[in-house]
Design brief:
Helix content is 28%, strand content 34%. The chain has 172 residues and is an alpha+beta fold.
Length: 172
Amino acid sequence: MTGKKVCDSCVVMAQQMNPQDANPAGNVHGGVIMKLIDTAAGAVAVRHSRSNAVTASIDRLDFHCPVFVGDFLTLSASLNFVGRTSMEVGVRVESENLMTGERRHTASAYLTFVALDGNGRPVPLPPLILETADEKRRNLEARSRRAMRLAEKTKEKNCQYDTRDCPAPASE
C-alpha cells in the first residue's frame, strides 16, 4: 500500500459562531466546539483512508479560553499517527474577534479514528509519510499517547476480571 503525506489529508475549516451556538450570556457551548472538532478530524480520517471512518476515542480535549457569539473559529486538523487500522488526528482551534482582529488559541484535541469497510470491519490504512521536523515530533508524541491509552485500556480490562488489579479509590 502506498504511503500518504500528512499534507494530503489536512483540513482547515472555519465557521462564525451565532446565538444558537451559545448560552444566554453569549458564551459558545463546549459541545458545539466539540462537534466542529469531530467534524474536522473526521474529514482528515476519511481523506487518508478513503473509506468510512468513525471516532474511537478522544484522548485529550483542552479548552484554553472562551468563545463568544460573533467569534470566527478556525479549526486546523492533521494526522499525527497512523497504525494498522487506527489513526490519531490533532485539531487546533483558534477564535478571532472579527471586529478587533484579536486571535486566541481556543482549544486543542487529539482524536482516534478507525477506518471501516462496507461491513463495518476495520480496514488497513496507508502508512503515513512524515516530512518535516514538526510532523516527526507530533508523531512521536502521538505514539506516546497511544502507548498510554493502550496500557490504560489493558489495566481497565484486567480490573473487570480481578478487582485486586484495580487502583484504590482516591481518598477525599
